[in-house]
Amino acid sequence: MESLPDIPRVVQLPDGTHTYTHPHQHPPTVPAVVHQHVHQAPPDRTVQRLALGAGIGAGTVAAGVYFGPLLVGVLTAMAANLALLALIACVCAWGVVTVVRSVGGADGKAAAKNIRRVRGRRG
User: Fold this and answer.
1) What is the mean pLDDT of residues 22-51?
2) Whether 18 contacts 27, CB under 8 Å
3) In whole angstroms, what is the distance from residue 123 CA to residue 117 CA?
4) Full-prediction pTM beyond 0.70?
């Protein structure tokens, strides 16, 4: 009859931490230093866990995970395009006003004066 394998036991190191040790192994006198390099945080899965817990299917959750960032990117690109178009419209309006003011002669000034008089009578 074979004997049972040796069972590891828990020992307390000098710094107060606990570790497993094999019965035929002496506990280390100095704990080993572990250098852990974290390059990127793990993704937050809270929303997915809540959705799955609420009974939404995994396909819906996967679609949300896939299309969510795409939707944010598309909306950002649309907002940037609209901002650029608004800037171009402002520059064009400023250019038209500048050209009309510089080209307008006595006729333009007389027309502006007439419009001021007409508005003054109504107001």
Assistant:
1) 67
2) no
3) 10
4) no
> 101 is written with which tokens?
């003011």
Q: How far is Cα 40 from Cα 60, in angstroms, rounded to an integer?
A: 26
CA distances from 82 to 51, 73, 93 (A): 34, 14, 16
The type of residue at 70 is L
In 3D, which of 35, 15, 40 has the Cα closest to residue 27?
15
Answer for the pair 1, 16: CB distance below 8 angstroms, yes or no: no
Dig out the tokens for 121 from the structure: 């009578």
Strand partners, 18: 12
How crowded is the C-beta side of 24, counted as CA atoms within 13 Å? 2
DSSP 20-84: EE-TTSPPPSSPPP------SPPPP-HHHHHHHHTT--HHHHHHHHHHHHHHHHHHHHHHHHHHH
Q: What is the pLDDT of residues 15-35, one digit of tens each?
A: 888 777 766 666 556 667 777
Instruction: Round to the nearest angstrom and report the end-to-end CA distance of the chain.
Output: 115
| 46-53 and 58-103 helices, crossing angle to 10° | 130
